[in-house]
Structure formats: structure tokens, C-alpha cells
Model the fold of this input.
Amino acid sequence: MKNPWYRFLLFIVLILGTNIIFLLIFPAEPPEPVAEIAYSVFKEKLESDQVATVVMQGDELSGHFVDGVSLPANQLLNPRPGEELLFSRFRTTLPPVEDPELLAQLQQHEVLVEARRAAEPSLLEKFLIALLPWVLIVGVWVYFMSKMRQQGGMGGGLLTKFKKSGAQLYSQQQSRVTFEDVAGLREAKQELQEIIIYLREPLKFTKLGGKVPRGFLLVGPPGTGKTLMARAVAGEAEVPFFSISASQFIEMFVGVGASRVRDLFENAKKNAPSIIFVDELDAVGRARGTGLGGGHDEREQTLNQLLSELDGFTPHDEVIVLAATNRPDVLDTALLRPGRFDRQVVIERPDWRDRGAILEVHTRNMPLADDVALEVIAKGTPGMVGADLQGMVNEAALIAAREDVEQVAMRHFEKAKDRQYLGMERQLIMTDEERKITAVHEAGHALVAHCLPGADPVHKITVIPRGQALGVTQQLPEDDRYHFRFSYLLGRMVVMLGGRCAEKEFFGEFSTGAQNDLKQVMDLAEKMVCQWGMSERLGPLSYSRGEEHPFLGMKLASDKTFSERTAWIIDQEIKEMVQTAETCAAGVVAANHDVLEALAKKLLEEETIDRELFKTFMDGRQLVLPEEGCPDFGNT
Ligand code: ATP
Done:
């Protein structure tokens, strides 16, 4: 009972207790019944000479009747059902409108009138009212003081909060994730198997004098399952798992990051064998001394602390550090040297087989209709990573729930897939003219894609506005692609420009609808010329133009490592490439004017044309690839 706050509470409880005991021993006299009556009833009683005395205080009027009066319930403001009482006292309220005759009437009926001042608080009440704010202030002060003392001195609580790493601890029992929950990623699993064996049987490695690698860096695009994999390793090894995002280290106060790193490693060592997982390592692990964000900033201090903690393990600390990043290229080289994160495990984008396996994992507990073919969905979702697939499965379930059906069917997955690839449908009112332009534009893309050998097949064309676009033409490759040939990339540019050329062919002028196409074409041409050495005039050289700056995540205009002359040649090459593509697209569109017109008309009728319908529509139609204007696309 050292705490003053508890003493204060005890004091209050004692006072209340004493009062209650006093009242129990000396119960108050039962009060005389008072009739609460309306002012009109009072006047009536006054007129009939039944009122003996009256006391006026503020707007309250009370007094005695001459004899006991029995009042019917409808005359009482406080009737007690089932009780017939004889009242000797009454109370009423004076009306807000002054009654000038009242005094005269009272005198006339010889009523004894006593006037009192409006009730004033007693001395004790005044004292208590004055005391109340002080009691509150002292109470609050005592409370906060006791809290601070509990957490270690003045301001101690605040500092302790900042020093704590904030890492989330998953114990073995809590939501255990195993390799079974991670679909695909066979190679990564094999590489990480070593950690599991070490954490289970550390002696097996160390008895021969070997040093076990401490740091594993999981590298891969966002959403490919790096965090999931790290948790699965902890789950398989059955050890505690400390997970933190590197950005959580950084606070506004200098030195907090470093102390959080220290706290995290201390905790992990206390719970050894254990795994530490640092997500988005690049948030603190970017190369030092880049001049961005100051020379010696909070981030660098945090990184230094992390480096020294990685060095500071003794051979008996059975702690493994896993980290994840999408940008291993920007990491400080000190992080990657032997003894720190010297092992890199690549977490790849899934191929169609792995996509199928991921879909299986996420549909495990879902009632699926018979028509659902996960393999078909997997083949139709190139480029999607685990997180996208999980999102798509979830979306399909929501769509099915909205339809109020019992099972998730293939059509729900199709809708969910469209939403992922093409964006949400928008309720946009377009004029007929605008719809026509959009239809011609999209038909242009689709027609060119269908004509060019080696281009990805058309999967869907729609003039329903989705996301930012007014219409969409989607092509899906037959298989996952890892290499892109020059002719394929040039073909892509031709398809992208097909929409704009179709508009010109039909309406004689361009519209703003091709803005995004042009941007994509330009980006692609820039990469082909500068990064992939696809320009004959420049030769097999790679220039940093078109690359994103590693520290800003965007392109920098002044980041030039080539001469003005080379810059001029690059511009010429990009321009020539885009012009070649445009000439070809214009030629294809002109040579197939009638088919294009028919396709645009069909699109206006149908609004959405899927792969099958498109195939049926094109079957038997004579398509012409112009002899001049298009480069040789071969058979990519
Ligand atoms: P980021 O780099 O953005 O942090 P990440 O690579 O760490 O992403 P996770 O957070 O692990 O990705 O994955 C997101 C979700 O995607 C997971 O919760 C999981 O459900 C799903 N997922 C990703 N890959 C797989 C996989 N191979 N098997 C099963 N589910 C997966």
C-alpha cells in the first residue's frame, strides 16, 4: 500500500463506509407525506379555505393544509398507485407568469405567509465545492506520478517505449505456418532447410568446427511470399520468430533506431534458439554516404548498430537472422559481406505450376463448384504473384457471396481476375460518339494483335470503362515468358499504337485516348535502345537512361553518363523505332479497314468480347499484313 493513489482511494472508501454504517444505526425519521400538486389545485384549495400556512422560496411554494386532506390520484403529480393517503403538507411550483392576485387572496383567506430567500449553499457545501477541483488535480497528479514510477523514473515510461524494438513475436504454438502453407518455391525451401536442421540440432554443425551462416537475405519482387517463407522456416524449426519491418526502427529521435536494434537482438538471444526476421531491409540498409538524407543520419546509425549486432553473435547464440528486400542492388555492401547476410535466397515469381499450387493452398477451405479448374486459372494469370492470387481468390469468394450462392464457381474467378488485371468497372456515362471512338481504338489494338505473327493472343476486349481507362484490350501470353526477342518487343509497340492508328484511319484525326499507349511505347523503346542494346547504331552498350534511381525510386533527368552526341543518337534511335512501329500499325489498320469496322461494330453491340467470341468472329476473315511498312516479325 505504498502507492499514494491507493491511499487516496482507501480514504474515500472509508468515508463512504462510515456514512453507510451511521445511516444503518440511526435511520432517518420517515418523512411526512407531501402532496405534489398543480398550481391550479393549490388555488382551488386556497379558495375553499383549506390552506393554513404557505412558505415561498424561489419559485417553490409549500405549506400545510388546515386539516389532513385526501386528494384523488388525478390531482396529484406524485400519485402512489393503490395507496389512499391523507395529506397535511403540499408543494407546488409558481407559474413563470406572475400571479398579481395571489398575495391578496392569501390575505383574504387568512393564510400565514412566510417568505424565505432562495436556498443558498451552506458553509460546508461551499467548502466542499471549493475543495473539489483541488482533489481532482491532486488525484490526477498522484496517478501519473505512480504510473511513471512503475515504469522507471521521470519520463522513464516514454523512453522505454521508444527503446523497445516493437518486434512482433510469434511463438511456436501461435498461428504456426509450415512449408506446407508455402506453395512452390522448391529451391528456396531446399536452401533454407539448412537453417531448420541447425536450429533443431546445433551441435551437428558446430562439433566439426564449422561456422553456420547467420544471415539469409530473401530477395524477390513484392508479394512473392518472402515474409511467409520466413515464418514457415520458424514454424518448421519450431522456434520463436521475431518479425519487424526495418522502417519500424526509425523514429524521429536520433539513437532510437540503434537502441531498438539492440533490444531486438537481446530479446532474440534470450529466447534462443530463435529467428529474427527484418522485412523491407532496404529501409535501413541502403548504401551509406550517398548524400541523400544527410551524411550521418539516424538511418546510418541504425544500420551501423545492425552491422555490429550481426558481428556480435557468439558461437553459442543460436539465432538466425532472415531479412527480405525487393532491392538487393541498393543495399550497403557491408551488409552483404561474409559473416552477415552472405547467403541470398531468391524468391522467384511463380510459374504456372506454382501458381496452381498457390491457388490450391488458398482455396483449401473454400467450397468450389465442379467447373472450377485451378490449372486453367493458373495458366491464365501470368505475372501474378502469391499476394495477387490470394487477393483474387478472396475477391472470387466475395463475388460469390454477393450472388448468394453456396459454391465459388469458375465465373466468379473470371470476374475476380478481370478486376485484378483490368481494374474495377466504372459507371461512367459516355456519349455515343465517345463510345464509338473507344470501340474503334480498342478494335485497332485487337486487330493488330491478331494480325502480327508472334504477338500474344487477344484475351478480352471491352468498352466498359475500367480503372483509369475508357476501354481495355487484354492480351495474355500462352506461356510464361522470361526472354523477349527484339521482334516480339517491336510487335508490342505496333499493337500499342494500333488503337491510335485506327482512330486516325476512321476519324481522320487523333484523340487524347492514346496518352497511356504513347507513354508505354516510349518507355519500352527507351529500354530497348538504352538498356538492352537493341539499337544497331549504338551497338552493344548499356546506358543508364530510363532506369529508376535506386534511392528515389524514380527517373532522374540529370543522371547522365553519356555525351550530348550519344544523347542525340539515343533520341534519334528511339524516334525511329517508334516511327517504324507506327508505320506498321497504320499499314495493318488500313489494309484491314473492313474487318476493323465490323469488329468495332460488334464491340459496340457486345460491350465485351472474350477470347472465344473473338476467335469465332475472326474465323474465316481474310486478314492482310501489308507487304511494305512492317518489319519481319518472324515467328516468335
Ligand atoms: P513484400 O515484399 O511486399 O513484403 P512478400 O514477398 O513478403 O511481400 P508476403 O507478405 O509473404 O510477400 O506474401 C503476401 C501473401 O501472399 C501471403 O500472406 C500469402 O498468403 C500469399 N503468398 C505469397 N506467396 C505464396 C506462396 N508461395 N504460397 C502461398 N501463399 C503465398
